[in-house]
Write a structure and sequence with these properties.
This protein is an alpha/beta fold. 56% of the residues lie in helices and 13% in strands. It folds into three domains: 2-159, 2-Layer Sandwich (Beta Polymerase, domain 2), CATH 3.30.460.30; 165-307, NAD(P)-binding Rossmann-like Domain (Rossmann fold), CATH 3.40.50.720; 334-416, no CATH class. The chain has 15 helices and ten strands. The protein starts with a strand and ends in an 8-residue tail after the last helix. The relative contact order is 0.09.
Length: 424
C-alpha cells in the first residue's frame, strides 16, 4: 500500500482559490468517500483549513490515481480541473510521508511553529475515521505523524517564541502582569491590528474588554463582535484609571494619550502598572510616557523587532525540526515496509513447520522404536534442513523490506510457495 497526498496551500494558491475549499468538518467524510469511490483507493481522508486543503490516500498504485484525485479536488472546490490543476502538488510514497510529518509538525505552515494545524489535522482525520473512509495504513501514518509532532515540540524550540505583533504584545503583557485573568483591556480605535491584539488578549483570559471609538456605533459593533463593552472616546481618561492594558489603533494625526493624562491616571490607580501598545501610525501615544514609573509603552516598531528576532530563532529551530522529521519519516517507512513482508514471513514459517511435522511423523513410523536421543537427532536434522532452506528467503525479504521492493518480493514468495494473497 502506497501513500499519496494531493493538495494546495498558501504556498501554491492565492486566497481566491483556497477559499473555494472552505468546507466544514462535517462535510469532510463525504468528500473523502467520493475520492475513494472514484479512484478505488482503499483509504482516504481530507483536511481543509484557511491555508490548505489536502487529500490523503492509501492506494496500491498511487501514480495511477493522481489524475482522478485531481478531478475530485476540483469537485470539492466547485472549480474546473483546469483552474485547480496549476495550484496542486502531489507527493507519493516517502515524499508523502515526509510531507504529512512536516504538516503535523507545523513546518509547512504560514507561521512556522504555530500549534493550530495539528489540532485541525487530528479533527479532520477523526471525522473521516468515524465516517469509515480510513484504514490501517493511514491510521499508522497518522499515529506516527502525531507522535513526531509532539517530539518536534518537546525536543526543539520551534513553538516557543511569538512571531506576530499581536502575540508578542500578549507575551509582553504576561511578563509584566503574570496571569492576565485579573487584567482589563481597553482597545482605543477600530483598526484591524488593534482588533487582532484584543482578540489575543481575550484568548489569554483577560477579565474585561472595553472598546472606545469616536464613532460610538462602530465601538458598539466591534464590542459585540469581541464580547466587550462599547465606550465613547470622551470617556478615555476615566478608562485609563481602570484598564491594565491599553491598545491604541486610531487614525488620529496627533497624540490622543498624553503624558499629563497618564500621570493623572497613575495617581488615581495608586500607581498600579499600566501597559500601552501603540499600533497606530502616526502614533496615538506620546512617547515620553515611557519615562514614567510603572508605565510600559511599545509601539509597532518595537513589537516588530521582537517578532522578527523570534522568527529568526524559530527558523534556526526549524532546521533541527526538519532533520528530526526526515529521520522519523525514514524510520516509519522502514517499519511500514517491514509490516508489508511480516505476514508472508509468518505464513512461510507456519507452512514449513507444518510440512516438517508431517514428514517427521511419517519418518518416525518407518524408523520404528527409537530412544529419546535418536528421536532428538532426527528432529534436529529436520530443523536444520528447514532453517537453512528458509534462511536465504527470510534474509532476502527482510532486506527488500528496507527498500521500496518489499511488497514485490513478498508477492513473489507467496506465489512460489503457494501462499494466498494475505500470506496464509
Amino acid at each position: 500500500m502506497e501513500l499519496l497526498v494531493l493538495g494546495l496551500s498558501h504556498k501554491t494558491a492565492p486566497v481566491a482559490i483556497r477559499e473555494k475549499f472552505a468546507i466544514g468538518e462535517e462535510a469532510l467524510p463525504q468528500a473523502a468517500e467520493r475520492a475513494r469511490a472514484v479512484t478505488g483507493c482503499k483509504e482516504t481522508f481530507l483536511v481543509s483549513t484557511c491555508n490548505r486543503v489536502e487529500l490523503y490516500a492509501a492506494c496500491d498504485d498511487a501514480s495511477a490515481v493522481e489524475d482522478a484525485l485531481g478531478a475530485v479536488m476540483a469537485e470539492v472546490g466547485g472549480a474546473t480541473p483546469g483552474l485547480v490543476r496549476p495550484h496542486l502538488y502531489a507527493h507519493m510514497g516517502p515524499l508523502a510521508v515526509r510531507h504529512l510529518f512536516r504538516v503535523a509538525s507545523s513546518l509547512d505552515s504560514l507561521v512556522v511553529g504555530e500549534p493550530q494545524v495539528l489540532g485541525q489535522l487530528k479533527a479532520a482525520y477523526e471525522s473521516c475515521r468515524k465516517g469509515g473512509q480510513t484504514g490501517p495504513t493511514l491510521h499508522r501514518a497518522m499515529e506516527r505523524a502525531f507522535a513526531v509532532a509532539k517530539k518536534v515540540r518537546s525536543e526543539t524550540g520551534i513553538g516557543r517564541n511569538a512571531v506576530s505583533v499581536s502575540s508578542v504584545a500578549a507575551d509582553l503583557a504576561r511578563q509584566i502582569f503574570g496571569e492576565l485573568s485579573a487584567c482589563s483591556v481597553l482597545l482605543v480605535g477600530a483598526g484591524k491590528m488593534g482588533e487582532l491584539a484584543a482578540r489575543h488578549f481575550k484568548a489569554h483570559g483577560t477579565r474585561d474588554l472595553f472598546v472606545a471609538n469616536r464613532n460610538f456605533d462602530r465601538a458598539r459593533a466591534l464590542a459585540e463582535t469581541l464580547g466587550g463593552h462599547p465606550r465613547g472616546l470622551d470617556e478615555l481618561e476615566t478608562l485609563l484609571t481602570h484598564a491594565e492594558i491599553i491598545v491604541t489603533s486610531t487614525g488620529a494625526a496627533n497624540h490622543i494619550i498624553t503624558t499629563a493624562m497618564v500621570k493623572r491616571a497613575l495617581k488615581a490607580r495608586k500607581y498600579r502598572p499600566i501597559f500601552f501598545i501603540d499600533i497606530a501610525v502616526p502614533r496615538n501615544i506620546e512617547p515620553a510616557i515611557n519615562g514614567l514609573d510603572n508605565v510600559y509603552l511599545y509601539d509597532v516598531d518595537d513589537l516588530s523587532v521582537i517578532a522578527n528576532e523570534n522568527l529568526a530563532s524559530r527558523k534556526r529551530e526549524a532546521e533541527a525540526a526538519e532533520a528530526l522529521v526526515a529521520s522519523e519519516a525514514e524510520r516509519f517507512l522502514r517499519d511500514l515496509a517491514g509490516g508489508a513482508v511480516t505476514p508472508t514471513l509468518q505464513a512461510l514459517r507456519r507452512k514449513a513447520d507444518d510440512l516438517k511435522a508431517a514428514e517427521l511423523e511419517r519418518a518416525m513410523r518407518k524408523l520404528g522404536d527409537l530412544d529419546e536421543k535418536q528421536r532428538k537427532t532426527v528432529e534436529m536434522l529436520a530443523d536444520g534442513v528447514v532453517n537453512k532452506l528458509l534462511h536465504e528467503v527470510f534474509t532476502g525479504l527482510k532486506d527488500a523490506a528496507k527498500t521500496d521492493r518489499g511488497e514485490e518480493m513478498a508477492d513473489t514468495v507467496r506465489k512460489l510457495f503457494g501462499l494466498d494473497e494475505t500470506g496464509k
